[in-house]
Amino acid sequence: MKKFIALTATLSFLISCGSSDRGELVGVRGKKWRPEKPYGMTLVPGGAYIMGKSDDDLANVQDAPTKTVTVRSFYMDETEITNSEYRQFVEWVKDSTIRTRLAIQADEVGATPGSGGIGEYAFKDQEGAEKSPYDQYMYDNYWSLGDPNNPDDMYAGRRLNHKPKLIKDPQKYPDADYVEVMDSMYLPESESYNGLRTVDVSKLIFSYTWMDIDAAAKDKSTKSTRNKRSKYMRHEKVEVYPDTTVWIKDFAYSYNEPMHNDYFWHEAYGEYPVVGVTWQKAKAFCAWRTLNKNAYQKDKGNQFVNKFRLPTEAEWEYAARGGMESATFPWGGPYAKNDTGCFLANFKPNRGDYAADGALYTVEAQSFEPNDFNLYNMAGNVSEWTDSSYDASSYEYVSTMNPNVPDLNNNRKVIRGGSWKDVGYFLQVSTRDWEYADSARSYIGFRTVQDYMGTQNTANQQ
What region holds the Sulfatase-modifying factor enzyme-like domain (predicted)? Predict the structure, then answer.
């Protein structure tokens, strides 16, 4: 042991002598970093503001007393996530699901790259394929092992081959194994109509893993137990396709079948906000967006970006206010019309009259004038999921710095902003509302945020 320590010290000395730091404390320098504004987002400079209702609480809910808080800087989507953007997520999951099934089928029949047919879609680490030393080691020690009683575990970590294009024309499927896989992705012929076979959306499942850092930091168990990261790893599996039936289920004795049939997939609604998305699906979208961006960053040799996530309730309200204190609406207020008598948001102005503002249902995500942070539809159109759990008394006990209630055991999640079917009260920037995390609605969507790297950018700078 003494020899090992002496050898280590000698090597450390030699390395130091051969370096270019001249023996000075210069720090460890990585790649030069430059902040990059995420596509479609705007910077919300952090600062302090008065959170809560500064005017009369007409509904007498009494869940938003005023409280001065401070939030850090962050980027936020300028618009709600649109159908087109969410479809990118769904298509990615569908593509990955098909490739995974093709690779598993190739594994089962022993097909390998170069053998033609389904073999071209085999796992990159499949037996017979040329492997790098790293892939060979991982295959021998991890990928080829697994729980035989858990079919998913046997393929955990295996690398898909994204190089060959998927063949979508049934007449050009290369072999029977490929046909079998593609057929498994669709509903049976007996459940099809109008001559169209429909993808079985229950097969479109996105799996991801995250670490519950909050639980790990608060764990008061012994150090040896606390250091086991696996204790705090959370594995999620989420069906990603929106629930299009919400257009019918949300409204009894109402004809909304065209919205059920066309709203999500038809290009006519591509720039409209996605709805029918649960809180869990919104969280899964954030995880995918992070994964998708960092895959590109890795390919280009760039540093990874911060994760995309849902905004906290305090962040959402701060962003909605657009830098204005004690305002009723994102545009100031207290009126929902401008000087020329035009409505400033998409909501239900009068009893039974949904179209007075020019729209019966939703409008395009980039509609009406943005607030002073260049954020569109922070009031009306669709309510928006936040990351925070709802507690009527939370304003009394949350921190004044980046307040949040991250209670995973509380299934009631805060939604903000009001929607196309709500009255003006719910459009107020201070009005709080909630919905169950596993609920999907025709009037709830979301937008994402990303933490700003650095602390020098605040709205309170002199």
Answer: 40-97, 243-449
